[in-house]
Amino acid sequence: MTQQDRFDASGYTYAHEHLHIDLSSFKNNLDCRLDQYELICDEMKTLVSLGVRNIVEMTNRYMGRNPQFMLDLMRDSGINVIASTGYYQFAFFPQHVAHTTARQLADEMIAEIEQGIDATTLKAGVIGEIGSSKGVITPDEEKIFHAAAIAHLETGRPISTHTSLGTMGLEQLTLLKKQGVDAERVVIGHCDLRDNLDNILRMIEQGAYIQFDTIGKNDYYPDEKRIAMLQTLAQRGLLNRVMLSMDITRRSHLKANGGNGFEYLISTFVPMLSHAGLTQIEIDLMLRDNPAVFFK
């Protein structure tokens, strides 16, 4: 049985997270190196106790991914990790992307899905986080989306995207559909970073999933506004296309370091949703049922 077959549909899923990521050199900030094993393992144990079964880990190549770290976390905490393959966004691309074909890039992704990541037993279960820049999709980013489409069509693994500050989601979906990807196999990330309801409705109308996956990052966009958009989607019966997560990427996000910690979504945000009138069925839909369908 391969790792991507081990999705546990019995509990909740965080649809877009990072357990080991290192963007510290790019951002010139040690806080952007998330690698404190004991602290993260303790938080995963807490999540398991709260009914979370799966973490979709969106750190791909050249972002500081560490497959052995993830394997150890699964062993020591009981959490299930769905690993990813792909390339992030233009500012983080290695030089070779510019002169590598979409077919070659796709073959790299397919190898990590079918054979394993960095000679470990961990196989990628999702293609992501495939990203675009703020307000634009660069030619190299477009090539990565083409490669992701090829890898998806040949392996069946779903595609999860990164939108910079919630921009270009519709354009990402258009690109992938042009390459033959069914919108139902795409989730557009970071849709909760701006007043984005009109675009969200258009993406859902086309069949795509969307993520409210920066929950707790109130400096970017307040949770109260996230909840207001979710209330509107609930009223329209569209929560069957929504997944939730926190996109934790920094040491300072961990609870022991003074941050919200991974449990904030369950312990704080879910009660806020209940208080705002969302039912337990609707909450379970976003955290359990939709991920079980999408990441199967």
UniProtKB/TrEMBL annotation:
The keyword Metal-binding applies. GO terms for molecular function: hydrolase activity; zinc ion binding. It comes from the Bacteria. Keywords: Hydrolase, Metal-binding. PROSITE patterns: PHOSPHOTRIESTERASE_2. It holds the Pfam family PTE. A divalent metal cation 1 binds at H16, H18, E129, D247. A divalent metal cation 2 binds at E129, H162, H190. Its cofactor is a divalent metal cation. InterPro entries: Metal_Hydrolase (IPR032466), Phosphotriesterase (IPR001559). The keyword Hydrolase applies. Binds 2 divalent metal cations per subunit. Belongs to the metallo-dependent hydrolases superfamily. Phosphotriesterase family. NCBIfam families: PRK09875.1. This is Putative metal-dependent hydrolase.
